[in-house]
Amino acid sequence: MANTGEEGFDPYASIKPFLGQPPDWFPEDVRERVASYIKYDEVYWNDDTQFKLRVLDGEEPIYIPNARTIVDTTSHFLLKGLQITAPDPEKNSELNLRLTKFLDREEFINRFQVAKHSGVSRGDFVFHMTADPAKSDGSRVSLNSVHPGIVVPIYEDDDPDKLIRVHLVQIIADERDATKQVINKLTYEYEGVGDTRKVFREQALYELDPKWYGPQPKKIKQLIPRGPLPDPITTIPVYWFKNIDWESQLFGSSELRGFIRLLVGVSQAATDEQTALALEGLGVYATDSGRPVDDSGKEVDWVIQPARVMEVVSGAYFRRVEGLSTLKPFMDHIGYMEGKLFQGSALTDVALGQVDVQTAQSGIALAIKFMPTMAKIEERDNAGLARLKQMWHDWKAWMAAYENYFIEEDLEVDVSIGDKLPGNNVEKVNELNNMIDRSIISKKYYRQEMAKLGHKFPDDMEEEIIKEQEEEARIKALSAPMPLQANAEAAANGSKPPPPPPSAGGRQNAPRQTGPNRSNNRNRTNESNGTEAK
Predict the structure, then answer these.
(1) In Å, how far are 105, 120, 148, 347, 375 from 70, measured between CA atoms?
(2) How far apart are CA 424 and CA 334, in angstroms?
(3) If DSSP codes are grouped into helix, strand and coil, which group holds residue 301?
(4) pLDDT (mean) for 37-41
(5) Can you tell me the mean pLDDT for 389-407?
(6) Is the predicted pLDDT of residue 358 greater than 90, yes or no?
(7) 480, 483, 511, 518, 521 from 514: Cα distances, Å
(8) CA–CA distance, 355 with 370 (Å, rounded to integer)
(9) So where are the chain's domains?
(10) How far apart are CA 3 and CA 158, in angstroms?
(11) In what order do the strands lie in the sheet with 124-131?
(12) What is the spatial distance between Cα 273 and Cα 333, in angstroms, rounded to a whole number?
C-alpha cells in the first residue's frame, strides 16, 4: 500500500500518544488512521476518555469543550451556502425536476452538512454512490455518506496518486452464530477491458481469520458476484473529501491536529483551579505537634469540623496555611492558552460572533477582520467544489445506466456556494433597483437575485404582472375621450389601429392643423413657424 507521507510525520502524528487500541481486523497501515478517527470523535464530544488529567483523590477532572467550538465554527463556514442546481432551470426543466427530486429524496444537502461537520473533526469524509435496479423508476440511484474508517483505498506502489482499488469493510454479526463476527467487504477495482477502463465490483462475507486482506482469505458467502458496472460508468463511485490537504499526504488532517497538547493544558489548568478552590475552602493546616490519640493512646487522624474542640500539647502551634489570595493568575493563564488556540485555528472575533455593531455594519471592516478565517477556508472550498463537480458529473452516468435518463455531455450540474458573511440587504436591494432602472439587468434576473435575499415569487409571476398591466390599461382607456377610446383600447389589448393610407408621394397623410395657433412661440417666426406644443 502507498506511503501516506514523510516517515513518522503524517496526519496522526500529534494524536498518536493519545490513541487507544486500534481495531485489529484492519491492515497495519490503516489501524492508526481508524484509531485517530475514534479519538478525534472523543475529543470533539468532550468525553472523559479523550485524555487523562492530573487530579487529587476524590476530585473529578474538568474538560473544557474548546474542540467543539473550533470544529463547529470551521464547519459552519466551510462550503457555506452550498447549492446544487440545474443550469438554466427553465430551459432544462426535465433535468431540474429530476435533480430536485433526487436531492429531496436523498436529503443530500442535510447529509452533506453532517458529513462535512464530522469530517472537519476527523479530517476526512466520504460519499458512496450506489444503485438498486430492483427499485422503481426514479429511485434506483442513491448517494450516501459513509464513515471514512470503513474505507480502505489502495494506490499504485509506483504512483501514490493513482487509485487502483477501494474496499469498504465492515464487521458484522455472523448470521450463523450471533456470538461471532464476520467481515462484509465490498470492493471496487479498475480493470482494463480492451482499450477502455472498466470498474469491477464484488461483495462477499469473510471469516475474521485468516485476515480478509491476507493472501488466502476465507470466503463465507458471495453477496455480489464479481463483474463490471454498466456503461457508461467508468469511475469508482467512492468520493473522498479532505478537511486539510497537504502535499504527499493521501488523507486529510483534522482541524484539531496539533492542538491536543494545548487542549490538555487548558483542561488541566481548569482542573487545577477547581482543586485550588476546594483546598482554599477546606483549608490546609500545619502543626509541630504529634498526631492526636484516642482514649487508648492510639494515634488517629486529624478531624477538623465545626463545633469540635482540638487540643495540642503546650508550646505547640496549630494554624491554617495561607493559600491563594486571587485566582487571576489562573484565569490569565487559561485565557492566554485559549487565545493562542483560537488564533492558531484562525478563528477571529468575527468568526466567533464577537464583534461590535459598528464593525458589523461596515462591510469592509468586517471583511478585514474575517480575513484570517477566510484564508484557511478558501483553498478547502476550492478543493471541495472540484470534488463535488466530479461527483455530480459521474451522477449523470449512473442516471443513464440505471434510470435510462441521458443528459447531454456538455450539460453539467451547477455546484456553487454562498457568501461567508451576512450582507447588507438594503444596499443589495438599492443596487438591484439602480441596475434595473438603467436597464442593465432584466426583470427575470432581478427576481432571481431578490429570491436569494429571501423573497419568494410564484412561478407565474410574469404572467400575473402582464395581466394586471393589461387590466390597468383597459380601465384607463375607458376614461379616455370618446375619439381616443378605440386607440386606447387597442393599445391596452396589444393591438394598434391601422395607419392612414399613404399619399401619392409616399408619405402618410397627416391632418392639417386648423384653428388658431396656440403654440408658446406663436408670435416668433422660426423654422417650425411657431408650431411647438405648449
Answers:
(1) 32, 9, 21, 7, 16
(2) 37
(3) coil
(4) 96
(5) 96
(6) no
(7) 22, 17, 9, 11, 17
(8) 11
(9) 462-492
(10) 10
(11) 141-146, 124-131, 238-242
(12) 11
